[in-house]
TrEMBL record:
<keyword id="KW-0812">Transmembrane</keyword>
<protein>
    <submittedName>
        <fullName>LysM peptidoglycan-binding domain-containing protein</fullName>
    </submittedName>
</protein>
<dbReference type="Pfam" id="PF01476">
    <property type="entry name" value="LysM"/>
</dbReference>
<dbReference type="InterPro" id="IPR018392">
    <property type="entry name" value="LysM"/>
</dbReference>
<keyword id="KW-1133">Transmembrane helix</keyword>
<dbReference type="InterPro" id="IPR036779">
    <property type="entry name" value="LysM_dom_sf"/>
</dbReference>
<keyword id="KW-0472">Membrane</keyword>
<feature type="domain" description="LysM">
    <location>
        <begin position="75"/>
        <end position="124"/>
    </location>
</feature>
<feature type="transmembrane region" description="Helical">
    <location>
        <begin position="37"/>
        <end position="57"/>
    </location>
</feature>
Amino acid sequence: MTTATFSASGYPALSSRTPVRPVAARPRLRLTRRGRAVLLALAAAPLVIAAFFFFTLNGGGATASLDDANVTFAYVTVDAGQSLWQLAESIAPTADPREVIDAIIAFNNLGSADVYAGQELAIPVQYLP
């Protein structure tokens, strides 16, 4: 039978034959979910700011103007009681009125074929006399 020796603190005494295992080093920094989100936001902020400045400085390059446009059209005023069908027949008597009506609606960006008296409509160039 072997006898164990105890130290003054009540724990078994270590002999010179007992190997000492190294204690694994614990990480000093533990990132929580919120910490990872903050770190990601701080890392991404310069990229977002750089992209914002890049796009705002280059955003003004494309401006539209009608200075060199060679678009020719005429305005026609709708009479009282006149429909688009009657208007299409008077503008282009040899063309199919449905095609003329579709072109007028598309050219004037109308939501429907309803027109009212006094309304001015732009007529596409192919239907001008």
